[in-house]
Specification:
Layout (H helix, E strand, L loop, with lengths): L2 H22 L18 H32 L18 H31 L3 H11 L1
Length: 138
């Protein structure tokens, strides 16, 4: 077997084991205890993972900063690290287009939320009034 085939097989086995544990409500990390309701891990594993992330947060932030600076110095996209950055920019055209698209969608969503809030203020309707109106009409 080749190395790539070994990794694909291992990945498939891990995914099957994960889904088996998840389907039976067993912690997918330790496989020893019941997972928390609505979650895939037990309380102990959740706590350990949270503690690890808290402990290593600064290291990860610093590593990302260093990676970004290396990519800028190399003239490659700071997002994907694969394609050359557009001259005078820090991202490649593809990543810039994706970022612009997601920013545009975010701004539209925020504008809609703001308009809904303003309309409710204007007409004196709160969130609970809105839900009560719908409950009465059903």
């Amino acid at each position: 077997m080749t190395m790539g085939r070994d990794l694909r097989l291992k990945s498939k086995v891990c995914k099957e084991r994960y889904n088996w544990y998840k389907g039976r409500g067993i912690c997918t990390t330790c496989g020893q205890t019941w997972s928390e309701p609505g979650k895939v891990r037990c309380k102990a594993c959740e706590g350990e993972i949270a503690a690890w992330h808290k402990k290593h947060r600064e290291e990860r932030i610093q590593a990302r900063r260093e990676q970004r600076q290396q990519r800028i110095a190399a003239g490659i996209c700071t997002e994907c690290g694969k394609r050359p950055a557009t001259e005078g920019m820090r991202m490649c055209p593809r990543c810039r287009a994706m970022r612009n698209d997601s920013t545009r969608k975010y701004k539209i969503q925020k504008r809609i939320e703001r308009d809904i809030q303003e309309t409710r203020k204007k007409y004196g309707k709160s969130e609970t009034d809105h839900h009560q109106d719908h409950a009465r009409s059903d």
